[in-house]
Write a structure and sequence with these properties.
single chain, 151 residues, mainly alpha, Arc Repressor Mutant, subunit A, 2 domains
Length: 151
């Protein structure tokens, strides 16, 4: 089922679009600085592309960004609550992806003393910062794909 567009005041959307433009400008500056040594054989385009691929490797797997997005948007969640938010994910896949994210310090597993013992998953500071960096991308896509409607 297709979701309806989120109606937001035009002034709010314009403010978000302005902020996204600022992020794009900053991203261009960062790209320029990181690519400043591309003319050197050791640090050329091949090195830079490989470094980018390695940096994004964990996030590129199916369900990884979805899990992080769910935790970023909703905050800490128990396993079944997270599974309910992510339609179509199997328990096995969710468990495997959470282990991967925990091993790489994107997510932490918090166990509260019981009874009953409760396990919650929450983004680490590192994971939270990645969520903040993805927010402009998600906002840009929402606005430009019609998920957000100016009213």
């Amino acid at each position: 089922m297709e979701q309806p567009s989120l109606p937001l005041p035009t002034i709010t959307v314009a403010d978000v679009e302005k902020k996204i433009e600022e992020v794009i400008k900053i991203g261009t500056e960062i790209r320029s600085k990181l690519g400043s040594r591309n003319n050197e054989p050791e640090w050329g385009e091949k090195w830079e592309v490989n470094a980018a691929v390695n940096s994004l490797n964990i996030l590129s797997g199916k369900w990884t960004i979805e899990i992080m997005s769910a935790l970023y948007i909703t905050g800490e969640k128990r396993f079944n609550d997270l599974k309910h938010l992510l339609q179509g994910i199997s328990s096995r896949t969710l468990s495997d992806k959470l282990k991967l994210l925990i091993a790489n310090d994107y997510v932490k597993r918090e166990v509260s003393s019981g009874p009953p013992v409760k396990v919650r998953y929450v983004l680490t500071e590192y994971g939270m910062n990645i969520g903040k960096l993805f927010s402009p991308i998600v906002g840009y896509i929402k606005i430009n794909s019609g998920m957000i409607k100016k009213v």
